[in-house]
């Protein structure tokens, strides 16, 4: 018996994901507006547009025990996944925190860019290195705050465009990357390795962020949250403030998904926990990336309508139809 009890305290290479706090992006946090737009005319908003989060236990910060893992496996609200699914083996706690924090800040910048593009407001975008993976090729060449100017002779001005050009370089070949560091242009021939999702696509192991240059600025309250998955909800909240007419109306809607400056919505992790958090917070509609549908469809809480979207424009259209009661033909998630 004592051996069994002691075994539950043994560390295991897993982490657990639980529903995290929910924030109304059209509201306030303490005495500060959740999102404050400056240098532009703004309009009143109403309703709730919730950002959902996941509380992660384990990972580089600390190791969970066998007992915690078993509890998570038995709890339908918790997912237990291999630590390696989210983090490289050699990443430190400090690196993980830095990457997560910077990804969150980058999602705010990118969301503003997506809205400005949607509204036809001019802006420029620069791409910077946030960090590099220590055992990947980029670690030998690139540093934090390097600005990426071009890849293989193609000028790049978005994260997606940069990644796309690197992926065109087959693993084992070299990508020619021009950067700006301390006001000096440098050219590197960086070998590529296989991307995590494709053995035929190239990767160099660098984390990137965007800087949007525009007179219009969006300032965010400090939520002490990390990761890129709130990009879509940030974009919708900014769009609502910058356009006449209330986009949400009196509805209570939750949203998750990454965003690019060209408006594409990307998949996220922890979809089950985010839906649970949305339902507990009172949301009746949940917008999610279409690529998360297959995972979400069997786990949608009763009373929560899950609507998939591919782009910011689609998400705006969904909210407009929901407000006008013309939502009968809206898509829903299916396992296919």
Automatic annotation (TrEMBL):
<dbReference type="InterPro" id="IPR020568">
    <property type="entry name" value="Ribosomal_Su5_D2-typ_SF"/>
</dbReference>
<dbReference type="InterPro" id="IPR001478">
    <property type="entry name" value="PDZ"/>
</dbReference>
<dbReference type="GO" id="GO:0030163">
    <property type="term" value="P:protein catabolic process"/>
</dbReference>
<dbReference type="GO" id="GO:0005524">
    <property type="term" value="F:ATP binding"/>
</dbReference>
<dbReference type="InterPro" id="IPR036034">
    <property type="entry name" value="PDZ_sf"/>
</dbReference>
<protein>
    <submittedName>
        <fullName>Unannotated protein</fullName>
    </submittedName>
</protein>
<feature type="domain" description="Lon proteolytic">
    <location>
        <begin position="225"/>
        <end position="322"/>
    </location>
</feature>
<dbReference type="InterPro" id="IPR014721">
    <property type="entry name" value="Ribsml_uS5_D2-typ_fold_subgr"/>
</dbReference>
<dbReference type="InterPro" id="IPR008269">
    <property type="entry name" value="Lon_proteolytic"/>
</dbReference>
<dbReference type="GO" id="GO:0004176">
    <property type="term" value="F:ATP-dependent peptidase activity"/>
</dbReference>
<dbReference type="GO" id="GO:0006508">
    <property type="term" value="P:proteolysis"/>
</dbReference>
<dbReference type="Pfam" id="PF05362">
    <property type="entry name" value="Lon_C"/>
</dbReference>
<feature type="domain" description="PDZ">
    <location>
        <begin position="109"/>
        <end position="159"/>
    </location>
</feature>
<dbReference type="Pfam" id="PF13180">
    <property type="entry name" value="PDZ_2"/>
</dbReference>
<dbReference type="GO" id="GO:0004252">
    <property type="term" value="F:serine-type endopeptidase activity"/>
</dbReference>
<dbReference type="InterPro" id="IPR027065">
    <property type="entry name" value="Lon_Prtase"/>
</dbReference>
């Amino acid at each position: 018996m004592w051996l069994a009890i002691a075994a539950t305290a043994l560390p295991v290479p897993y982490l657990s994901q639980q529903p995290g706090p929910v924030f109304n992006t059209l509201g306030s946090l303490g005495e500060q507006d959740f999102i404050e737009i400056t240098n532009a005319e703004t309009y009143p908003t109403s309703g709730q547009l919730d950002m959902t989060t996941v509380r992660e236990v384990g990972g580089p910060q600390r190791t969970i025990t066998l007992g915690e893992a078993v509890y998570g496996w038995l709890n339908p609200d918790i997912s237990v996944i291999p630590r390696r699914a989210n983090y490289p083996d050699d990443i430190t706690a400090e690196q993980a925190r830095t990457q997560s924090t910077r990804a969150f800040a980058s999602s705010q910048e990118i969301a503003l860019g997506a809205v400005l593009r949607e509204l036809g407001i001019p802006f420029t975008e620069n791409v910077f290195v946030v960090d590099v993976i220590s055992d990947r090729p980029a670690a030998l060449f690139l540093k934090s705050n390097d600005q990426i100017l071009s890849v293989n002779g193609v000028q790049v001005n978005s994260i997606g465009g940069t990644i796309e050009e690197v992926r065109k370089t087959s693993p084992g070949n070299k990508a020619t990357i021009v950067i700006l560091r301390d006001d000096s242009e440098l050219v590197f021939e960086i070998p590529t390795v296989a991307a995590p999702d494709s053995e035929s696509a190239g990767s160099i192991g660098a984390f990137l962020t965007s800087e949007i240059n525009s007179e219009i600025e969006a300032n965010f309250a400090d939520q002490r949250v990390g990761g890129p998955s709130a990009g879509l909800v940030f974009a919708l909240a900014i769009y609502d403030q910058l356009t006449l007419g209330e986009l949400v109306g009196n509805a209570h809607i939750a949203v998750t998904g990454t965003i690019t400056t060209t408006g594409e919505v990307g998949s996220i992790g922890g979809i089950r926990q985010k839906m649970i958090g949305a339902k507990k917070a009172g949301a009746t509609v949940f917008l999610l990336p279409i690529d998360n549908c297959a995972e979400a469809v069997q786990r949608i809480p009763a009373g929560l309508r899950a609507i998939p979207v591919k782009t910011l424009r689609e998400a705006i259209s969904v909210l407009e139809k929901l407000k006008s009661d013309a939502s009968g033909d809206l898509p829903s998630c299916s396992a296919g």
